[in-house]
Amino acid sequence: MEVLNASGKPGLAKTATRLLRRAGIDVLTFRNAPDSVGALDSTRILVRRGGSPVGERIRKALGTGRVAVEPDARRLLDASVLLGADFAPPRLEFHP
């Protein structure tokens, strides 16, 4: 899957990636969303392959998000997350 930061708050894609990986979800890439997406108020989870259970697992790990199934055979991933301003991650402990 991919994580795209569309919140306007720096660093959220990396934080969300850590949360998802801790939940056993494989994140291939994380970065800022393209300018064409604009700033989002709410997080969107777009399922590209599979069904809504894929999105629900991601939503549970993030603690927020609206799931939509939008198949896209051109993308070689199961889901895209567009982080919105509503994404408020818990404080993570980091070990060296």
Describe this structure in words.
The protein is α/β, with parallel strands linked by helices. The chain has a single domain (2-83), classed as 2-Layer Sandwich (Alpha-Beta Plaits). The protein contains two helices and five strands, in the order E-H-E-E-H-E-E. The chain has helices spanning 12-22, 52-62, and strands at 2-5, 29-32, 44-47, 66-69, 79-83. The protein has a five-stranded mixed beta sheet with strand order 2-1-5-3-4, covered by helices on one side. It is globular. 33% of the residues are buried. The mean pLDDT is 93.
CATH class, anyone?
A: Alpha Beta
Q: What topology, given as strand order, has the largest sheet?
A: 2-1-5-3-4
Structural class: alpha/beta
Order of helices and strands: EHEEHEE
In terms of DSSP E residues, the strand content is 15-25%
Radius of gyration: 12 Å
Largest sheet: 5 strands, mixed
Summed up, the domain count is 1
Net shape: globular
Helix content: 10-25%
User: What is the number of E strands?
Assistant: 5
CATH architecture tag: 2-Layer Sandwich
List segments where confidence is low: pLDDT < 50 over at least 5 consecutive residues: none
Named CATH topology: Alpha-Beta Plaits
Summed up, the helix count is 2
What gap, in angstroms, lies between the N and C termini? 26 Å
Report the mean per-residue pLDDT as an integer: 93
Short synopsis of the structure:
The protein is α/β, with parallel strands linked by helices and 96 residues long. It has 2 helices and 5 strands; from the N terminus they run E-H-E-E-H-E-E. The chain is globular and about 30 Å long.
